Amino acid sequence: MPAGIKSLRQYLKFVDIVLEVADARLPAASRYPDLGTILGNRTRILVLTRADLADPVATARWLEVFQAGGTPAVAVNARTGEGVRALRQQMAGTAKEKRGKLAQKGLRARPLRVMALGIPNVGKSSLLNRLAGRGAARTGDRPGITRGPQWIRIEGNMELLDTPGVLWSHWQEPGTALWLGAIGCAPEGILPVTEIANLVGEFLLGKAPEVLVTRYGITRQEAEGANLLEAIGRRRGYLLPGGIVDQEKTALALVNDFRAGYLGRFTLELP
């Protein structure tokens, strides 16, 4: 993390706007703490990605809170492009303001430099590809796809910088790490998938137990029983020799279904 932040500080010298990218399902915990200290007086636009996987009512509440706090914020679905137009408008307005200031100083206009910043796998590269209108940045469904900084030219005389995601030093605090794991933003293999699945299961039992019944063909009693993974594993046939439920395989199936939105649209924290 210290090396990553040092690298980010180096590139911040050359950018005009920072797109802070966070996951709409975890709008607070998937952001850098104290980012304002790192950015200084640079313009920041908060982009909540994967809005299609989050509760739309909760997302609207979060946007109101961020806007009220003085942080411009937009929710987007990079896969479909929903919300990207509003983001472009935000960026264009900032670009016009920046160019006006350069003109007042007698400086020649140059491409506005925009930097995308966020923790691993919050959807930075997918967002930049949508803004660029082509597959210019590498994307993937696991943390660590972006290995090095990439400049991307987009319309409106702007240049985008995609950077590798960096986790902050205290991301492993109890609870935070598991929630990040639930949305796929923690390094693979670091957290026990069964613990993540138990957290997801507990959350769903409190919010929408019926989705477990429908998705996995278990009864309401089984869904609310002492061992949800046991019930799902047996129904799915995820068994080891001797008829023992493969807990890890079952947990992975539940977590992957949750991440992909097959169990519904949920926001894991509220303002």
TrEMBL record:
GO cellular component, one term: cytoplasm
Annotated CP-type G domain residues: 5-169
Key words of the record: Cytoplasm, GTP-binding, Nucleotide-binding
GO BP annotations listed: translation
GO MF terms held by the record: GTP binding; GTPase activity
Residues engaged in binding GTP: 121-126, 165
Annotated PROSITE patterns: G_CP
Compartments where located: Cytoplasm
Protein's job: Required for a late step of 50S ribosomal subunit assembly. Has GTPase activity.
Family per similarity comment: Belongs to the TRAFAC class YlqF/YawG GTPase family. MTG1 subfamily.
Protein name, entry field: Ribosome biogenesis GTPase A
Designated gene of the protein: rbgA
